[in-house]
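The instructor's notes for this session suggest beginning with a concrete chain rather than abstract definitions. Hand out the sequence below and ask the class to guess, before any prediction is shown, which regions might be ordered.
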Amino acid sequence: MPTLEPHAETRRVLRHLRDVIEDADMTQRQIESRAGFSRGYLSQLLAQNIDLKYRHVLAVLEAVGIAPATFFARVFPPPESRPPRGRPLELPPDHQAANVYGFGIEAVQELRQRLERCEDALVTLHESGVIDDGSPRDGEP
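After discussion, reveal the predicted structure:
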């Protein structure tokens, strides 16, 4: 697995976040207001004068109406051949899920792929330090 450089990953998230903000039919001030930020806070985040936190990204995404899964799938697209990592998803077999939830088998398979990509993105974000879930890191009390 390639080593991730946290600052590079943060810059990648910021680059995509800037794109989302530019594509939104809103001013930065409107986004700040909806995200609960003070005036100028978004500019400070984008200029990297304030450390970007996962909660900041989620607040901006909610303000512009973009699902986090959609955003992170763009930031961290699935690799062509993904090695298994973490614990496997514990979903019923596709045919059982399709019967239980009333979906076609293709929809269940697509859902499973999306969940795996989201899981991978979250692991990558956590490993790179973009997500801080409050748990101690190696060497911290």
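Then share the key points. Helices lie at 6-23, 28-35, 41-46, 54-64, 68-75, 94-101, 105-128. The chain is about 60% helix and 0% strand.
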